[in-house]
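Subject: for your reference before the review

Hello V.,

The reviewers asked for a structural picture of the protein, and I figured it would be easier to keep everything in one thread rather than splitting it across files. Below is the amino acid sequence we used in the manuscript, unchanged from the supplementary table.
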Amino acid sequence: MSTQNYWSKNKMIEKVISFFYSGASVNLGIGIPTLVAELLPKELNIFIQSENGVLGVAGRPKKGEESPTLINAGKETISIRKGASFFDSALSFGMIRGGHIDFCVLGGMEVDTNGNLSNWMVPGEKITGMGGAMDLVNGAKCVIVVMTHFTKKGSPKLVKKCSLPLTGVGVVNIVVTDLGIFKPENGKFVIVELASGVSVNELSIPSELI
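And here is what came back from the structure prediction:
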């Protein structure tokens, strides 16, 4: 299949944003999920929380307006919206663990049919740590994983059972890849939407899993 049928990163993020509702609180993982802050429609009143202690992230700062004291959990400089607030790590994780975050959007290495997620390490490779992911996938009301459909070696990331160390068990609600949108339910992947021109066979998921 030609990669021209794949959704771009921006298109994937547009699909993620389509699940949000006005007034929701959203936490963003590093990598592709950070694009959410840049692509959010102005009319959608979303409060982006960062576990290092910010509520009200508003995308990238303009050149010359960067501040070393305004960063997200990935240590990237950010801008903030009117009414933003700042707090310590204890309060931030109290918000997360207390179930006050509506959506968590993060990347993934594997998601399986039971909604298990692996996204923090590959044995034998450099480990940067899990960060707040373990708390977020268990504390957020809805967990959305956004990732490429295949690994660099061409293996599908949607699998029957995760082979990598888990971040969370039964925590994933929605998966958005560059080939479509999926929901792990009852030991299978429910296809919500496929990218234009993409067939079920091109997903490389065994037929008994969809």
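For the response letter, the relevant points are probably these. Helices lie at 9-17, 35-39, 89-97, 133-139. Residues 3-209 form a domain with the Glutaconate Coenzyme A-transferase fold (CATH 3.40.1080.10).

Happy to draft the paragraph if you're swamped.

O.
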